[in-house]
Amino acid sequence: MKLFKLTASALAMAAAATAADARDQIQVTGSSTVLPYATIVAEAFGENFDFPSPVVEGGGSGAGRKKLCEGVGETTVDIANSSSRISQSDIDLCKTNGVEEIMEVRFGYDGIVFATAVDGPEFALTQADVYNALAAKVVKDGALVDNTNATWADANAALPAQAILGLVPGTKHGTREVFDTKVIIQGCKDSGAHDLYLATAEGADEKEKKAAADKSCMELRTDGKSVDIDGDYTETLARLDADKTAVGVFGLSFYQNNTDKLRVATMAGVVPSTESIASGDYPVSRPLYFYVKKAHIGVIPGLQEYIDFFVSDDMAGPDGPLAAYGLVSDPELAATQAAVAAGTPMGPLE
């Protein structure tokens, strides 16, 4: 790995920092998906810079963003990792607690994959298949009825006649958002269920009716066929090891580092890979972010250097260690690097 040298200003900032005005370690929390990437960067940062390695913890994207928004000062965290974009409610909470400027840093892409035990049958899934297996209601004879599908073959006759058991990310995970929007809601539309929900949805206008229909689509079974996993992907893997008939939802990078245990399913005919995500062919991908409390830059020693290092070509570029772990490098990484160097805070959500 390339060795990095501190600038004179960074050395001066580090020398001036004392226990009275700043912590000596950067504190990072949030997404379990981003956790391994941030850990790699934190360890390399400690090896290459005269700052301590940052403390990196998981806990979920939503929980991490809430911690970021608890306020400003050395008793609060500096960075929240997130596998989903920050919400307006997060931004409002930040402002309420005096966190006025946040830097949004998109550092690459990942995909979510469906995988089974390595010695299990092959699955060629579509979003409609997953919806018909796991949703609370499905279409039958032109009407919405309670989902009684018992096997994947009941959801789609072309799939294995294996009992349905889906291990899906819990609602506090950023992964759940992409699962809901790009798999369940899309599957709801593809199966015809969304049109039926829309026909009876309440709302003042079409936008509100669509939101109500989307919400109905996202209701999953409560009969044990769909199980929320509140922990990280290691918990999902442990549950799958305990029941070989399960189909689990994982991040691409986690799957790529556990190919000896997992067999991945195709989605809409596409094999998930860094190449298929980079090309846009794989339909279930998502950007990865971290959010920085700008008020802490220049106060917490090494914070600017850490975020510069994270998005550098040597770390987040296509030939860096994060790509080797499974990250799909952002084609617009240079723009991110410039925004980070300039300390540009995020604007209003689009």
By CATH, the superfamily of the largest domain comes out as Periplasmic binding protein-like II
Q: Overall pLDDT, averaged?
A: 91
Number of helices: 16
Say what the CATH topology of the largest domain is: D-Maltodextrin-Binding Protein, domain 2
Question: Looking at the structure, what is the overall shape?
Answer: globular
Distance between the termini: 38 Å
At the first level of CATH, the class of the largest domain is: Alpha Beta
What's the Cα radius of gyration?
22 Å
- Note the beta-strand portion: 15-25%
The CATH architecture classification of the largest domain is 3-Layer(aba) Sandwich
Parts with pLDDT < 50 across at least 5 consecutive residues: 1-21
Number of strands: 14
* Biggest sheet features: 10 strands, mixed
Helix and strand sequence: HEHEHEHEEHEEHEHHHEHEHEEHEHHHEH
Structural class: alpha/beta
Estimate percent helicity.
25-40%
The number of distinct structural domains comes to: 2
Write a structural description.
- With 350 residues, the protein is an alpha/beta fold.
- It has two domains: 8-109 and 287-342, Periplasmic binding protein-like II (D-Maltodextrin-Binding Protein, domain 2, 3-Layer(aba) Sandwich); 111-285, Periplasmic binding protein-like II (D-Maltodextrin-Binding Protein, domain 2).
- Helices cover 39% and strands 19% of the residues.
- The chain contains 16 helices and 14 strands.
- The strands form three sheets. Strands 1, 2, 3, 4, 8, 9, 10, 11, 13 and 14 form a ten-stranded mixed sheet that branches.
- Helix 2 (35-48) links the parallel strand 1 (27-30) and strand 2 (55-59).
- The longest helix is centred in the middle third of the chain and has 18 residues, at 174-191.
- The model is unreliable at 1-21 (pLDDT under 50).
